[in-house]
Amino acid sequence: MLIGFMASGKTTVGELLAKKMGMPFVDIDRAIEAEEQKSITAIFSESGEPYFRQLEQQKLSEFEKSAAVISTGGGVITTEATRAFLKQHPATIIYLKTSPATFLKRLKGDETRPLAKNQTPEEIEQLFQSREAHYEAVASFSIETDCLSPLEIVSEIQALLT
Questions:
Q1: For residues 78 and 108, which has the higher predicted lDDT (pLDDT)?
Q2: How far is CA 135 from CA 3, 36, 86, in A?
Q3: Range among 100-104, 106-110, 151-155 rated most confident
Q4: In Å, how far are 41, 100, 101, 119, 126 from 122, measured between CA atoms?
Q5: CA distance linking residue 117 with residue 84, whole number of Å
Q6: Which long-range contacts (CB under 8 A, 24 or more apart) does 18-26 make?
Q7: Total-model pTM
Q8: Is the pLDDT of residue 122 over 70?
Q9: Whole-angstrom Cα distance, residue 95 to residue 8?
Q10: Which of 4, 26, 74, 155 is most deeply packed, by most CB within 10 A?
Q11: pLDDT in tens, 15-52
Q12: Secondary structure (3-state) at 144
């Protein structure tokens, strides 16, 4: 399972890792969008973040016993219940640790992320800082991603898993 802040590469790395390992890939955000038939932005706008976090936890529970590479949303660690679930999860949880300079560069002009939309870089960095300790607390391993390509990250993950 891959965790990390928005724009840390969870989906990109997850898809590559799943292909390399011959496993299915599950993106929790995409699964929620498919079930709700709405974008994450629309869900946040219409029903609010607490509702979205409930959906997120439900989806994690659905895929709990799946033999798949799972990519979570950046805020998956924001609720105590989900953090407790992740800590008890038998899967290896890998934190894709990305610096603010890197994720801010990747987020520039991205209007698809409701918690980054209309926020200053300072506000986005504060959001990251409020979450960082939670990522570290639930992760089995952390990989600093700034200087690595997605394929290099996949190689590091495979090395950790063997």
A1: 78
A2: 7, 27, 10
A3: 151-155
A4: 21, 10, 11, 8, 6
A5: 28
A6: 18/68, 18/69, 20/154, 20/158, 21/69, 21/158, 23/67, 23/68, 23/69, 24/66, 24/67, 24/68, 24/69, 25/68, 25/69, 25/70, 25/71, 26/63, 26/66, 26/68, 26/69, 26/70, 26/71
A7: 0.92
A8: yes
A9: 9
A10: 4
A11: 999 999 999 999 999 999 999 999 998 999 999 999 99
A12: strand
Is a pLDDT exceeding 80 seen at residue 84?
yes
Residue 156 has which token pair? 């590091």
Alpha-carbon span 132 to 130, nearest angstrom: 6
Bridge-based pairing of strands 94-97 and 69-71 is unpaired
Structure tokens that stand for 4 in this block: 């990390």
Residue 116 tokens read as 């980054």
Which amino acid, one-letter code, is at 128? F
Burial of 27 (0-12, 13-18, 19+ CB in 10 A): buried
Q: Which of helix, strand or coil describes residue 13?
A: helix
In this structure, what token pair is assigned to residue 146?
């700034």
Range among 15-29, 73-87, 97-111, 113-127 with highest mean pLDDT value? 15-29
